[in-house]
Every structure is written in structure tokens, then in C-alpha cells.
Design brief:
Bound molecules: heme C
Distance between the termini: 62 Å
Shape: globular
CATH architecture of the largest domain: Orthogonal Bundle
CATH class of the largest domain: Mainly Alpha
Number of domains: 2
Strand content: under 5%
Radius of gyration: 20 Å
Order of helices and strands: HHHHHHHH
Helix content: 40-55%
């Protein structure tokens, strides 16, 4: 205990301030995770901010009929209102100003939308233009099923 106090007394004011504000943030934020805070920061940018290693994440689910059928159902429930029934970006809640960005069938956009990136986009969403984050509503497995289905629309 004494040594812990010694270590604390040795810390610079900046480090202490940082630790205290982090502790405060944790208390105030409660269930708001650091990841959510980071995602919110990323969402203020005008482009998607995707971590460099996002593409390294591979879909853990097999791309078979059962996965695609599950993904299709989840897509209809969560994505269709904006992206449209066939993923063309023509759902009732679509943002007409970003119709091209919302077209999930565009093969020209496949290279920059590998599975890991699509997962990241769905999990974290973005603010401008608006696409909600689904990390609170769906499990990772559900999102991977949607990824498999969404990627099948591009072929
Ligand atoms: C409220 C409307 C809305 C909902 C709901 C929504 N999206 Fe989006 N989505 C958007 C908008 C707007 C964009 C364009 C953002 C941009 O690229 O700047 C987008 C972009 C995307 C992209 C990137 C496309 C590209 O070529 O870069 C993917 C992938 C995507 N959405 C998948 C999904 C999936 C899957 C779901 C359901 C889990 C979903 N979206 C739900 C509005 C929505």
C-alpha cells in the first residue's frame, strides 16, 4: 500500500490529471465504452475512418445457404429501410444525396469493402452521412451473417 502511494506521489501532475479524468469519464459515462467514444470521434469525419487492420478480420461463419438466409432476414429487419430490398441504396429512409455510397451492389466498390471493413462499418456506423452503429442491437455473429449476405449482393 505504501509503495502504491509512493508511485502515485511520483506521477507527474499531467498523468494524475489524466488518470482522474479517465476515472471521472468512466463514472459519468457508465455503459459508454471507450470504443463508443472512439467511434463517435470517427463519425465526425466526412469520410469513413477505418482502422488499417480492419481487413485482417475474416468472417468466422461459413458462407453457406443457412448463413445467407439468416443474413438476409437480418438485412431486411435492419438495413433495408435505407439500403433497399436489393441493397441498391433506394430504401424509404435512404439519403438521396448519398445514393451512390449506399449502393451495396456496386462491384467497383468491392476492393475497399472487404469483409472486415464491412463488419467495421456496420458495427461502428458513422455520423455523416448518417448510418447507425449496430453494436448495441446486434451480436457480432449476427453482423457477420449480414456481412456474408451484403457481400453476396455485389456479385
Ligand atoms: C439510417 C439509414 C441506414 C441504415 C439503417 C443502414 N445504413 Fe448502411 N449506409 C447508410 C448511408 C447513408 C451510407 C453511406 C455512408 C458513406 O459511405 O458515406 C451507408 C453505407 C454503408 C456501407 C458502405 C458502402 C460503401 O460502398 O462504402 C455499408 C457496407 C453499409 N452501409 C451496410 C449497411 C448494413 C449491412 C446495414 C444494416 C445492418 C446498414 N448499412 C444500415 C445508411 C444506412
Amino acid at each position: 500500500m505504501a509503495s502504491a502511494r509512493y508511485i502515485i506521489s511520483c506521477m507527474s501532475h499531467t498523468v494524475k490529471a489524466l488518470l482522474f479524468s479517465l476515472a471521472g469519464l468512466t463514472l459519468v459515462a457508465g455503459t459508454v465504452s471507450i470504443r463508443t467514444v472512439a467511434a463517435a470521434a470517427a463519425q465526425t469525419s466526412t469520410r469513413w475512418t477505418i482502422p488499417a487492420n480492419a481487413d485482417e478480420e475474416k468472417n468466422p461463419l461459413p458462407t453457406n445457404a443457412a448463413t445467407l438466409a439468416g443474413g438476409k432476414k437480418l438485412f431486411a429487419a435492419n438495413c433495408q429501410r435505407c439500403h433497399g430490398p436489393a441493397g441498391k441504396g433506394d430504401g424509404p429512409d435512404a439519403d438521396p444525396a448519398h445514393a451512390a455510397d449506399m449502393d451495396l451492389t456496386n462491384t467497383a466498390r468491392a476492393a475497399r469493402n472487404l469483409d472486415g471493413t464491412v463488419f467495421y462499418k456496420i458495427w461502428n456506423g458513422r455520423g455523416t452521412p448518417k448510418m447507425p452503429a449496430f453494436s448495441d442491437e446486434l451480436t457480432k455473429e449476427q453482423v457477420w451473417a449480414i456481412v456474408a449476405y451484403a457481400q453476396s449482393l455485389r456479385k
